[in-house]
Amino acid sequence: MRQKATYQLTGRQLVLLAVISAFIAVAAVAAMSGFGIGWNYFMSGESAEKTFAETRPAITDPATVTDEENNIEIYKKMSPGVAFITTSARFENWFGEEFERESGIGSGSVIDNQGHILTNYHVIEGASKLTVSFGGDKIYPATLVGGDPDTDLAVIKIVPPAEGLTVIPLGDSGSLDVGQKVLAIGNPFGLDRTLTTGVISGLQRPIRARNGRPIDAAIQTDASINSGNSGGPLLDKFGRMIGINSQILSPSGASAGVGFAVPVNTAKRVVPQLLQFGEVRRPKLGASLYGVEELRDRGIDLPIREGLLVRSVVPGGSIDRAGLRGLSSDGQSTLLGDIITSIDGQKVNNIDDLYRFLDKKKIGETVSVQVYRRGDTITVPVKLLQMPETRSGNRRF
């Protein structure tokens, strides 16, 4: 009978692991307040398809008009559906007295006749009061329906006026090409419903939400985007929304021709859950995890080169129920926990890989998890469950 290899962590490695845990916790908290100089943040299934069926507005065939005429027509027909969002927040003065004042501005797009408006999460984050206007004197009070900080998307709602609303139709961000013409409508620096034009400069750009989560497949554009454009639509030449303008990359803080939009197909997946639950309910593995490469770079050598080390498991969580193990002790030394190497055949070398995988899964699905356990490789079925959110800095997924 072959003897199993038992990998033990040395005292020095345990100290390093503890230091890394503290460092990552501090870094995660810091990430909540900003990402450093230069970065300015301004569902799936049949139900989603029925809610957001791709439509084409009554725009003249761009092939039959000049580019200028196309710009003018799209602005005239779509800008009435672009919202000017103003937020207020509560503050406290030196005497401990609370007061409310305007705290920010942003943009949004009307997505249905019921008054739902799609915007960025960071536009409404922390707001105690929301108001919306559409270019006139009329101000509409708005309420928060739901928000998802992981994709930087949120939905707010107004009571629609008797004359109705202009709905911005949704396109398909999965069929875009670099060089394709795009138009952005928003409220940069409070300048009501401003149009800028450009092209798609790049696709599949990895960007991050303010909480550090990766937002995949972002659209890069050179259409001018500035503070106040956040949450506004990025449109194609047919007037369909293909993205939600979200970030710029600029050392000066103003537009440098490198802007990013969250793909509209991400919104199609997220918004139905925001409308139904007020949040996006994602499955969790229920474990404290660390990337093997990340640990190796900090001086902790493990028996394999890639994967996610299970440090601890949440009782009753997905992988606890599947029998996966975290670090343990035999009374004399600390024994290595399981290392997850792939899920459903997809490698998971870091937390971003895991997040991208889970973000597209539903609660209740069963996945096949490949695990390195003390010299052996085993495959375990894991039923994905929902876990309560944990405090920032706690690496539970």
Task: Produce the secondary structure layout.
Blueprint: E1 8-9, H1 11-33, E2 39-40, H2 46-51, H3 67-78, E3 82-92, E4 98-110, E5 116-119, H4 121-124, E6 129-133, E7 140-148, E8 153-157, E9 181-186, E10 194-208, E11 214-221, E12 233-235, E13 241-249, E14 259-263, H5 264-277, E15 283-284, E16 287-291, H6 292-297, E17 308-313, H7 318-321, E18 328-329, E19 334-335, E20 339-343, E21 346-347, H8 351-359, E22 366-373, E23 376-383, E24 385-386
Antiparallel strand pairs: 1-19, 2-13, 3-4, 3-6, 4-5, 5-8, 6-7, 7-8, 9-10, 9-12, 10-11, 11-14, 12-13, 13-14, 15-24, 16-17, 17-20, 18-19, 20-21, 20-22, 22-23
In short:
The chain is α+β, with helices and mostly antiparallel strands.
Task: State the main characteristics.
alpha+beta; Pdz3 Domain; Thrombin, subunit H; six-stranded antiparallel β-barrel; six-stranded antiparallel barrel; 8 helices; 35% strand; disordered N terminus; disordered C terminus
What does it look like?
With 397 residues, this protein is α+β, with helices and mostly antiparallel strands. It has 2 domains: 128 residues, Pdz3 Domain (Roll), CATH 2.30.42; 244 residues, Thrombin, subunit H (Beta Barrel). It is built from 8 helices and 24 strands. Strands 9-10-11-14-13-12 form a 6-stranded antiparallel beta barrel. The chain has a 6-stranded antiparallel barrel with strand order 3-4-5-8-7-6. Strands 16, 17, 20, 21, 22 and 23 form a 6-stranded antiparallel β-sheet that branches.
